Amino acid sequence: MMDVGRHPNITLLVDSEVEDVTGFVGNYRARIRRNPRYVRAEDCTACGDCAEVCPVVVPDEYQQGLSSRNAIYLPFPQAVPSAYVLDMDDCQGNKPIACGKCLDACEKKCIDFDAEPEIFEVAVGAVVVATGMEVYDPKANDEFGYTRFPNVVTSMEFERLICAGGPSTGELVRPSDQAVPKRVGFIQCVGSRCSSGPGSPYCSNICCMNTIKQTLQIDEHYPDAESTVFYTDIRAFGKGFEDMYRRSREAGVRFVRGMPGIVEEATDGTNDLIIKVENTTTGELESHRFDMVVLAVGLVPHQPSTEGERTLDQILTLSHTSDGLVMEAHPKLSPVDAPTRGVYFAGCVEAPKDIKDSVTQAGAAASRAGNLLGAGEVRVEAITARMAHAEDCNYCGKCSRVCPFHAISPAKKSDKLLPVITEAACSGCGTCAAECASDVIGMRHFADEQLMAQIDAILADDPMGKVVGFACNWCSYAGGDNAGTSRLQFPASVRLIRTMCSGRVDEKFIWHAFENGAPMVLVSGCHFSDCHYINAVTWTQKRVEKIWKRMHKLGIRPERLQLEWISAAEGQKFAKVMRAVDELLREVTPEEVEETRRILAETSPMPKPKKRSALAGAPNA
Amino acid sequence: MTEKTFQCLRCKHRFSGQVDPKKTVERSCPRCASNSVWAEPQPPKPKTEPASR
Known about the structure:
The complex is a heterodimer.
Chain A: H1 2-6, E1 16-24, E2 27-34, H2 49-53, E3 57-59, E4 68-70, E5 72-73, E6 85-86, H3 101-105, E7 118-124, E8 127-129, E9 134-135, E10 152-154, H4 155-162, E11 183-190, H5 207-221, E12 226-231, H6 241-250, E13 254-257, E14 262-265, E15 273-279, E16 284-290, E17 292-297, E18 299-300, H7 312-316, E19 343-345, H8 355-375, E20 385-387, H9 398-402, E21 408-409, E22 420-421, H10 431-435, E23 441-443, H11 448-459, E24 467-472, H12 476-485, E25 494-499, H13 507-515, E26 520-525, H14 536-554, E27 561-565, H15 571-587, H16 590-603, H17 614-617
Chain B: E1 2-8, E2 14-19, E3 37-39
C-alpha cells in the first residue's frame, strides 16, 4: 500500500468511484466521482486530536462492529493516505455546522466542511478491475444461530478478535462475557457450496486454509484451548498447505467430517453452545459443547448497494457466469482478460482466491496492460464487422443495440447519420451482420457469401441424408472436437459450418438451407453463461424462436430446426445431440422437403437480395 | 412474470415455466435436456358473435 502511494507513476484516487467508462481498447475515458473526505489528506498528520473531541460514536466497520469509532476517524492503522476522514452520514451535520469540535481541535486546520464531490475524466488505455468480493453475511438466514447467540461469530470477526490490532488487542475473548474460550468449534462452508437457497454454489477457496491458520493461532496463543473443525472435506491444495493441515492435526485440532444439523445455546446460563452433528466417518450422532463457535463464511460477488446503481458489467460491458463471477475472455488461455479488449481482472473479482494467487494474477494483469500500452498500437483480428452497403441503411439502429461490445455508434435518421463501427472494439461475433435486415453490415471473413457457399456445398449431393449444422467456434465446435478425441460414436449426417459465434447465424442462412432442400437444420452455440461474446447468444435464441414461429405459420414443422447449447467440455452432449438430430432426420420425407421448398418459393420469408456490384459485396473490401 | 406452456421440439414433451418478457434465459426440456424448447403459440381466440340487437 505504501509503495503504491509513493510510486511516481501511480496516481492513487481514494474515496473515488468509477461512474462510467466509454471508448475502446487503448482509448478509454473513465468518468470518476471523488467523494468529499472533508479532511485535506495532504495536510493531515493523523495526530488524532479531532477524533478525541468528536462526540459521535458508531460501530467500527473495520473491526467488524466489535469496537467503535468516531464520526471522524482513521479507516485503519495502515491506511494510505494516512489521514483522517469524516463520515458525513454519522456527523451531526455540516450545513450548518452542528458541532464543529473537530474543526476547533485541528491544529493544522485541515478540516473542510464545505468540500463537494468532484467529477472528472481521465484518459486511459487499459482498465484493470480489482474490486474483490464480499464476505457472506449469515445474518439474513440466521445461519447456525448467528443472530441469536452472541458467541457465534464469523471467521472475519474471529480474525479481528485474535489480531493484535483488534478490539481486544489480540486477546481472544468471547463476546458474551469477555472470557477466554477454552473450546472453540469451527463450521466450514457457511455460504459456500450451497446447491440451493442462499449462499454460493462454488467453493470459496480460502476458508479451509483460513480456519486451519486460525486453529494454529489458538494453539500458539492458548495451548490449553481445544479446537474442533466440522467440515465437508478439507481442501488444502497448494504449496505448504498440506503441511499446515498436518501441523494443525498434530497440534491436537480435531477434524470432524460432517456438517452440524443444529447449534443451540446451553440452558445453564453459560452462553455455551451445543452442536449436534452426524459424524459421517463413524456414522454416529455426536453432541459437542463449545465456548465459542466460528462460522467459516465464504465469499460472494459484490451486489449493487442501491437500486439503480450501475453494475460493473454495465460500466465495462462485462459478462457474468451463472454464479455471479465475471467471465474471462478464455478460462484457460486468457484467464486475466475480459471479453472486452483492454480490460483485465485481478484478484477475487474473477473468482475467490487467496493472497498469493491474487498477487500473481495482479502481476499478470499489470503485465498484460503494460504490453498493450507499450505496443503503442492495437492489433485486432481481421474478423470484424464492416459497413458493406452503407447506401442501403435504413437507420433502424438494430446493429448498435445488439452489439455486445458497444462497438457500433447508433444511426440517426434525422441527421442521416450512419452507424460507425469501431473495429478496435469489435470482437467479430457477427450478431450485427445477422440482425441487419438490409445486409448493410458485412463481416470480414465468415462473410455471407462464404457461409452460403458452404450451405450449397453440403446440399449439392444427397441432401436428404444430411443436416446443415452451425456450430460456434468456442464451444459447440470444440465440443465436437472433444467428442472426436474421446472416440465417441455418433452419426456423420450433421455437416457443421463453423462460425465465430452462433449470433452470426443469419435468418437467411436457415431459410436458404430449407429452400435448397435441407431436411433439417441445427444451430448450436455456447451456454448462456459461457458466451464468449457477452450476450450474443441471447440474440441467437430470439432469432431461432422467431423462425420457429414463422415455420409454424407457414405449415413447416418447427422440429426441423433444432437449437442446442453445447460447451467445449460437453463431448458427450455433442454426440447425444448428433444422434438425436439424426433420428429426427429420418422422420423427414422427401415429399415434406419438396412441400417446404414449394411453400418457401411462394412465400419467400426473407426479402430478396438487392443486386449489387461484386466489388461492393466482397468480403474483404 | 407470466406462466407459459413450453414444448420440446425434440421429444414433444410439454411443460410449464415462468417467463420474464424482459429477460432471455436458457431453457431446456426437463425430460430430454434438449434446448429446442419453444413457447407454444396460443390458439387464435374464437371470434365472438356480435350481440344481437
